[in-house]
Amino acid sequence: MVQVRQARERLGGKFRAQADLLQMLEQNLQEMRDEQERMVLEAERQFEAREKLRLPSSPVPLEAVLAAVRNLLTPTLPLQVLNQLTEEANRMGVRAAAFEVRGKSAWVASAHGFEPPLTEKALRSLVVPLTVDSPFREVFEIGRPFLGNSEGLKKNANLLNRLKPDSRDSILLLPVHSAGAVSAILYADSGGSGASLPEDALKLLAEFAGARLEHLMALSVRTAAAVRKESAGGARPEFTPSQESPGR
Known about the structure:
Blueprint: H1 2-53, H2 62-72, H3 78-91, E1 95-102, E2 105-112, H4 120-125, E3 127-129, H5 135-142, E4 146-148, H6 157-163, E5 171-178, E6 181-189, H7 199-233
Antiparallel strand pairs: 1-2, 1-6, 2-3, 4-5, 5-6
């Protein structure tokens, strides 16, 4: 019968589209595993190279850096990446906040190490304009790190009032690059200790957080395209009796 044949064709098309989608998802998972292994090896190589230069930075054991990089490769959503970034930075002895760039402003998305902890309301209201001449603007537009203290951030009064860095604190702002642009900015300070910051380790964390964000973005685009293709393949009109062949 025509109805049975057309129903089989529709089901066959849906099954083929779903099989293609599953195959693509499996391929994505394998790529994520391969990427994780590659990025951990790259982190080890970069950190060892920087250690040989003996740059003036508070030392962080190589194993701790590699563990942080591995943890950065586990999130599956951009916000989770930024949250993991500040958590790993805090484990290295700093207070950290990650600002997500949205248009011409940077909105804090995650923070760790602040006492008392920043409330959800405080997080939502902490916005840094990127149109004001300040270190945040330079980090965003030039993509170059800033190392200084609260005096250098005096034009970002909103941030200083909320994060309250000590005048002795070293403050580091790092760009998080993804898709050819600065998509986030990592803030780190020494939490009133006056100690030097682990610049090299934090730079590596910011670098690999950006790589993770870029990879997730690429996977999202590919998955969305596959889902649209699958949906289009299953969007054929249902059979009605008026569509039967006259010669039935």
